[in-house]
Design a protein that fits this description.
The protein has about 450 residues and is an alpha+beta fold. The protein has two domains: about 150 residues, Glutaredoxin (3-Layer(aba) Sandwich), CATH 3.40.30; about 210 residues, no CATH class. The protein is about 40% helix and about 20% strand. It contains ten helices and 18 strands. Strands 1-2-6-7 form a four-stranded antiparallel beta sheet, with no helix packed on it. The protein has a four-stranded mixed beta sheet with strand order 3-4-5-8. Strands 15-16-17-18 form a four-stranded antiparallel beta sheet, covered by helices on one side. The radius of gyration is 34 Å and the shape is flat.
Length: about 450
């Protein structure tokens, strides 16, 4: 029987040299891709570093407010609190140029006030036609009559073509500045557009008079404010073993081994005494709850996108109120009374502020002390963030007293941080009714002018 032959298919054998070449090419491609990825990562890192360097460089100049995305000369930026505008000239220069460029016209207005005819006449500077003068006179008479103005605070009117433009959050100029409140010499500076727009003219002069009236009421009330709590406290402490009278080093003396906190004194390490008498609140810089609140403030500050400067500081002030309220949510008199009763707190007993923060309970004094502690600590640890001086201020009227934080960015830029009233604003901003925060030394300061916002 014939044996059948089996046919088998043999797999082709690859040449070893060919395989080696393929492997070499593949390894080379992978190395090339890794190298390209390395270069790309380096490029991204370099771009990020340059951006960080740009931010650091931008933040270094904190002498003037910085504005992102603005191609304008930073020297022309001007500010009043949170109001910012760009103008080539200061208000003083605008007034001087107005007097130099224009011959004064006489504006005469008449109106009825409390049954009597009142007539005022004062100089007006600006390129206005007669019908525009008539419009201004009629509007001003209407404002004076509605506000029952028995005296004329305006010594001269200036109508100017350009007063600058307000800046938005990115530093870009937007709407025109319509006018300014009265300066210390009684000059009213108004955008010339208002001379042929009756509604705009009315709103500007009404805002000027409102600012003046609020300032007069506030300053008048501030003259009646009493700042003598310290005298009453010293009288109460006199003769006590734990009290040391004022010395050159401790301006307000010491109590229980700590310096007494009062106007412009350091907060950390001190002790705050109340009048009427309550517990003595000590500020331990190592307090766990105090530093927890401080770390919360730092976390909030890191979210601020505005460059360093006065605007940055204003946001920090507002955030300090937010953190203080979150740390002391139970700030009613009843909650505080229950805390005192349950812990049997006695008059002038040394009780750390940390105790009240841990109990989440306190009043305007505790809120203010917490804010002052956080801001003072921040100014020492991060002076680029906050450069000014922090102080605890308080005064009283018969039947009511109040405590707040005063922050002096500069001698003529003083801010009020009032946690009880949720207020952060300049001391010399009289756009709204408020508490009498002025110290007796502030009452003689000249009137500050600000842009009118409509």
């Amino acid at each position: 029987m014939a044996k059948s032959a089996e046919k088998t298919l043999a797999a082709p054998k690859l040449d070893h040299n060919f395989v080696a070449v393929l492997r070499f090419i593949w390894r080379s491609i992978k190395l090339a891709l890794r190298f390209l990825r390395f270069l790309f990562d380096k490029f991204l890192a370099l771009m990020g570093y340059e951006k960080r360097q740009q931010k650091v460089a931008a933040a270094a100049d904190d002498e003037v407010p910085l504005y992102r995305n603005a191609s304008l000369d930073t020297r022309s930026f001007q500010s009043f609190g949170s109001i910012r505008w760009v103008s080539d000239l200061s208000l003083r220069q605008i007034v001087e140029n107005s007097r130099f460029d224009n011959e004064a016209k006489s504006l005469r207005i008449g109106y009825e006030c409390e049954g009597k005819e009142v007539v005022y006449e004062f100089p007006l500077y600006g390129d206005l036609q007669q019908h525009e003068l008539d419009l201004v006179g009629d509007v001003l008479a209407t404002v004076f009559e509605e506000r029952k103005q028995s005296t004329n605070p305006i010594k001269a009117l200036h109508f100017v073509e350009d007063l600058g433009r307000f800046l938005n959050a990115h530093g870009a100029p937007e709407s025109k500045v319509p006018g300014f409140t009265l300066d210390e010499k009684g000059n009213a500076v108004v955008l010339q557009d208002a001379a042929f727009d009756e509604e705009l003219c009315y709103r500007i002069f009404d805002a000027i008079m409102q600012d003046l009236e609020i300032r007069e009421r506030t300053v008048s009330r501030a003259r009646d404010a009493l700042w003598n709590q310290r005298d009453a406290i010293f009288k109460r402490l006199k003769g006590l073993r734990d009290f040391t009278p004022p010395t050159a080093r401790y301006v307000y003396g010491t109590f229980k081994g700590r310096h007494i906190i009062d106007l412009d004194s350091e907060i950390a390490g001190g002790i705050f005494l109340s009048w009427p008498a309550k517990e003595a609140i000590s500020i331990d810089p190592q307090g766990e709850s105090l530093n927890t609140a401080y770390r919360k403030l730092l976390a909030e500050i890191r979210r601020i996108t505005e460059p360093l400067g006065l605007g940055f500081e204003e946001k920090i002030m507002a955030l300090s109120i937010k953190v203080a309220h979150a740390s002391l949510p139970m700030n009613s008199n009843e909650a505080l009374r229950q805390l005192r009763d349950s812990n049997r707190l006695v008059v002038d007993e040394d009780v750390p502020l940390d105790f009240f923060v841990a109990a989440e309970t306190g009043d305007s004094e505790h809120l203010s002390l917490l804010i002052a502690f956080m801001l003072e600590k921040l100014s020492k640890e991060m002076p680029d963030y906050l450069k000014g001086k922090v102080s605890i201020d308080r005064n009283w009227f018969p039947g009511e007293s109040h405590c707040w934080v005063r922050y002096a960015h500069a001698k003529d830029q003083v801010y009020i941080i009032d946690a009880r009233k949720n207020l952060v604003g300049r001391l010399d901003d009289y756009s709204e009714e408020r508490w009498s925060y002025e110290r007796p030394s502030d009452l003689s300061a000249p009137r500050k002018t600000r842009p009118i916002t409509l």
